[in-house]
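Supplementary Note 3. Input sequence used for the single-chain structure prediction.
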Amino acid sequence: MALISYTLSTLLKRTLGRHRYLCAFNRCASNDTESEEELQRARAQRKTEFENEEEKWDALVDMTLLSADDVKIYEAHKLAVQRGHFTYDDPFQRDRIVKTRLRHFLRGTCCGNACRHCIYDHLNVADSEKSQRIYNSAFWVPRETRPDLVKKLMAAESVARFSDDKEFYELFRTENNNSDNEESDPLVFRH
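The predicted structure, written as discrete structure tokens, is reproduced below.
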């Protein structure tokens, strides 16, 4: 135990410098409480930002486009986000751990791994991988698992996968629901 603590303190001294090391452990600087308060404020602000964004994303989910398996995934993800978790276990593949939107939000950019809950529209994902995914209004799914959804989206001239403007999306849904066409698809723009 003594060897571990000696190694840790030596490592900290080397990386932080002697003065910063002493300040970190002895609280010698008066700015520590101020910086902790700033850190707490910044965390609270980020949490509020995420909660606001999560409400927007959740409002855009169209449950009619989700399959029974998609609903289970949606519920598992929602529970994980409510608990503040960065990941959750895939309900169908127990050995697979999936990142939540919270983790992606805190990262700040697309990682390029074609994640299920990517909030950045797979910006850094290779085009070949992008073409294998489709957005079901809640998260990204492989095209081969949802041929019904692919058929709906391929029939349209343009597709609305995500909108930051909730009012626009609600107006769009209202217009489509009032149309004469009984096969109105909430993801298809009608011109």
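The mean pLDDT is 75. The first helix runs from residue 2 to 16.
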